[in-house]
TrEMBL record:
Protein name: Predicted dehydrogenase
Phylogenetic lineage: Bacteria, Bacillati, Actinomycetota, Actinomycetes, Kitasatosporales
PANTHER family per the UniProt record, alphabetical: NAD(P)-BINDING ROSSMANN-FOLD SUPERFAMILY PROTEIN-RELATED (PTHR42840), OXIDOREDUCTASE (PTHR42840:SF8)
Domain Gfo/Idh/MocA-like oxidoreductase N-terminal positions: 50-136
The GFO/IDH/MocA-like oxidoreductase domain, residue ranges: 149-285
InterPro entries: Gfo/Idh/MocA-like_OxRdtase_N, GFO_IDH_MocA-like_dom, NAD(P)-bd_dom_sf
Organism: Streptacidiphilus jiangxiensis
GO MF, one annotated term: nucleotide binding
Amino acid sequence: MTRRTVGIVMNGVTGRMGYRQHLVRSILAIRDQGGLTLPDGTVVWPEPVLVGRSEDKLRAIAERHGLAAWTTDLDAALADPANEIYFDAQLTQVRGKALRAAIAAGKHIYTEKPTADSVTEALELARLATDAGVRNGVVQDKLFLPGLLKLKRLIDGGFFGRILSVRGEFGYWVFEGDWQSAQRPSWNYRSQDGGGIVLDMFPHWHYVLERLFAPVRSVYAQATTHVPERVDEQGASYAATADDAAYGIFELDGGVVAQINSSWTVRVDRDELVEFQVDGTEGSAVAGLRNCRIQHRAATPKPVWNPDLPATEPFRAQWQQVPDNGEFDNGFKVQWEQFLAHVVADAPFPYDLLSGARGVQLAELALQSAAEGRRIAVPELHV
Ligand SMILES: NC(=O)c1ccc[n+]([C@@H]2O[C@H](COP(=O)([O-])OP(=O)(O)OC[C@H]3O[C@@H](n4cnc5c(N)ncnc54)[C@H](O)[C@@H]3O)[C@@H](O)[C@H]2O)c1
């Protein structure tokens, strides 16, 4: 058995995503399972180097998890040849500078989305990584959710016949921060800090639509700030300058129409925090984070519109659960394993920085659509 240690500079591990999903649930979970075993028997052993701005926070995380390597000096971490991968879960706005330094140091790049807050910068980063010949990847975790994996299984199995439309509903109430603390960081609500639900969620919708259905050809969006004032982590009021809800319509290659509502100002009357309904000529499905329900053409009721009568059918009871038929691991971890295999053994990894740039492009065009009140075509992007 060959053991291959891979040093990973992990920047932003004091944040929500960096700590919980990437360090604890991915890299430490891979170590807990004894490393990642590749098909040829090689065991990949990820060795994280924690990077951030606060010595106290880094030391506390390192001690909690028995890790030795942490530093506030990114350049020093990048200068160490044992560190082959640079990972970024920092605030979106400060990501570009760190990614450029890592690419210049010859590191392979793996990063949270959005890869940048403008398509110009996102594309520039994709170009730099391509020119430097480094492996590069962006987190596209929703693709690895059990509910969406079941949906993909239905699509691949031809369940839907011709797919007509997709309607997505995402969101929940994010508290304003006054009488109950907000459950998301305040920068999300300030556009000057890279916040906004369009920049946050449309990159996700982009890869979900593109990889499950077809490339997005046009977007129309209405973005708004329903709650204009919020209270931050220090208890101070601030102007919420970023959009907190967006209502988007996307036209896909081949004519599928997708409509996705994204909101931090909606109360949940759904089974899950995100759900996608897909309607096709042969059947329909509703997929969430974990579950997926279906209704086949042959089991479709025939309601007749009559407002004088109460509903005659228990519509929600007429759907059937899609079984798991397998174990679903944490999606962030599964994608990390794929990226490690990509770096060490050249395994395929389609979720690259160019794909991340297409997600940023969709967000940028959606904001333009909202500002101009018109539908906008999505041009092809190339490095
Ligand atoms: N894939 C997903 O589902 C998902 C979900 C949420 C957030 N994200 C992305 O992950 C990234 C981090 O989001 P988060 O929710 O963990 O945020 P967070 O505020 O919890 O963490 C931000 C991290 O960036 C660091 N940072 C570096 N420079 C900073 C600066 N100048 N100001 C403030 N913080 C700075 C912080 O120390 C912290 O470690 C964002 O790019 C976000 O878009 C992805």
